[in-house]
Amino acid sequence: MTSVTFQYMTFITWNAELLPGSWFVDIMFRTSIKSTVFGVLESSYQLNLQSAGLALAKAIDPAKRLDVQTLASIIIGVAMSMVNLASTSSKMRALWKAVLRSTTFFSVERRRTRRALLLFVGIACLYTILISRAIFQTYMAIGCPYGLHNIGVGCVDPHGE
User: How confident is the prediction for the chain on average, in pLDDT?
Assistant: First the structure.
């Protein structure tokens, strides 16, 4: 969703002096909330579910083969997650610059801007951690003989051999 609306940000931020700073801050908060809903709650959790499903599918397959379609879906999902994070970060940076141009140094909008940026940075960190976990779990599903991995134990043999 962010990559679709991002094309208008250049025009909007170019006219930053004509618009109030609070307008940009409101967009920053909305962008942070959208990042939470679409990025963290949808994309990253879905990738973690797919990587767990990939590991379980390999564990129950008699030949211990990987599900290529699920693996391809995970790879595409990770790539799109990184593209979405990059475009949302660019949008937030453009909005931040617009607020700086349209407000005074000690204005209320600047304090709200800092809160919006901190909220976004926290969400982006959580998003990156969850995507990294999905990548790690997928890597271990490929590398472990049965596809199952426990962080404290390592590769798990479901038969206990």
Answer: 80
